[in-house]
Amino acid sequence: MKIISETPVVILAGGLGTRLREETETKPKPMVEIGGKPILWHIMKHYASFGTREFVICLGYKGELIKEFFLRYRANQGSITTDLSSGEVKSHNDQPREPWTVHLLETGEKSMTGGRIKQAAAFLKGRRFMATYGDGVCDVNIDELMRFHIDQGRQATITAARPPARFGGLTFDGGKVTEFAEKNQINEGWINGGFMVLEPEVAELLRSDEEVLERYPLETLTARNQLSGFQHSGFWQCMDTVRDVTYLRELWDAGSPPWKTWK
Predict the structure, then answer these.
(1) Long-range contacts of 177-186 (CB under 8 A, 24+ apart)
(2) Are the CB atoms for 32 and 41 separated by under 8 Å?
(3) Name one GO molecular function term (predicted).
(4) Domain 2-163+189-253: assigned CATH number
(5) Which entry of 47, 57, 87, 190 is 20 to 30 Å from 12 by CA?
(6) Residues whose CB is less than 8 angstroms from the CB of residue 218 and which lie 6 or more positions away in sequence, other chains included
(7) How far apart are the C-alpha atoms of 205 and 114, rounded to whole Å?
(8) Is the pTM of this model over 0.85?
(9) What is the pLDDT of residues 94-133, one digit of tens each?
(10) Strand, helix or coil at 37?
């Protein structure tokens, strides 16, 4: 779908990640690694597998580490030769290059999700854009998501996902357990899974850097019948806890992570 290659993706990568303090004391949550690569990279590779070429990364907490990752990205992908006397560095073309343009946008450590989107929208100057959180992976079909958004004709579309089931279900008869079964993901309710498409008009609802996207802006869009929900019953996983990180790493190490849509 050609329109995907022309639509930038905004990724919210500035939060503190306080519930994952074991990892985020030294790095921002989007830089926590799965299979030796930051989860941010996994998100970008997923979008890129559908043709995305332009990204706006909204920085905040320890954003300099995300900058360093991309500044060194090319050299770290393959072989280099460096002349120590002159400082000249030559990169050898033995690794495929990502055809990406990456804007690293300082949006402030204290900005909220809506505030970061507000700054990204101003940077993009009236363009439609996709947006997601920098701590969740998914196998949603981006082509189908964009087609749905266009067909619906509303100002915003969010991907509705089913959260992973965390607990087994029990059925009682008095004090006796009559049934025990692991809860299926399909039995969980729908939640905002990110992977959004936003028209430029949405920026009018983002009043300040303290705006929380998930409150007034999305609530107002809902009241105005301007919010669509693309229902995705496939894989979706956020990375809020050490358990989540371990689970994603185990899926990657097993060789067939569900969100890996690229070759």
Answers:
(1) 186/162, 186/233
(2) no
(3) glucose-1-phosphate cytidylyltransferase activity
(4) 3.90.550.10
(5) 190
(6) 156, 158, 192, 227
(7) 9
(8) yes
(9) 666 799 999 999 999 999 999 999 999 999 999 999 999 9
(10) strand
